[in-house]
Amino acid sequence: IDAPGDDGLEHHDNGEQMEELPPAPPVPAEVPKLPGYLEEPITGLVQTDKLVYGNGARRDSASVLGLGLQKLSSEHAMMIQRAKKYAMEVSIKMVLMKQTLAHQQQQTKYLQRQQAVSIMSRIYVGCINYDTREDAIKQAFLAFGPIRS
């Protein structure tokens, strides 16, 4: 039988010391119960009526799954067909508008680049002898690309 010794360690009957035990973990504080929550699960419930979906739903499960839907009248079917056609037309118009806009932006960007290249390609040649003809100047610069005067 173990008994505590004078040094605070546990000892066997024969007087040998045992390993010191770590302190016990602290007991967690009691968590207050929230009002309105159940302490224990409810058991013994029996379904007595049709299953209803969602808050305040008035349809039973058959109508939610499409089993209890009414057949559409020809007028309603025609209205749905028109709505589908309109939605498709609007969708196609939006796609075409986006494509047109993208094409216009691409064209604008291309023209801006062409203008930038045109402006950056200009050079000024000064101090030319008056006897030098335009053909000679064009011939000298023709090796670097087309010339516009």
User: Strands across the major sheet, in which order?
Assistant: 1-2
Mean pLDDT: 79
**Low-confidence stretches at least 5 residues in length (pLDDT < 50)?**
none
Multimerization state: single chain
Measured by DSSP, the beta-strand proportion falls in under 5%
Account of the protein in words:
The radius of gyration is 46 Å and the shape is elongated. It is built from 3 helices and 2 strands. The model has no long low-confidence stretch (mean pLDDT 79). The protein has helices spanning 61-64, 74-120, 134-141, and strands spanning 3-4, 10-11. It has a two-stranded antiparallel sheet. The protein is an all-alpha fold and 149 residues long. Strand 1 and strand 2 form a beta hairpin. 0% of the residues are buried.
SSE order and pairing:
Blueprint: E1 3-4, E2 10-11, H1 61-64, H2 74-120, H3 134-141
Antiparallel strand pairs: 1-2
Quick overview:
The chain has three helices and two strands.
Key words describing this protein structure:
149 residues; elongated; 3% strand; mainly alpha; two-stranded antiparallel sheet; 3 helices
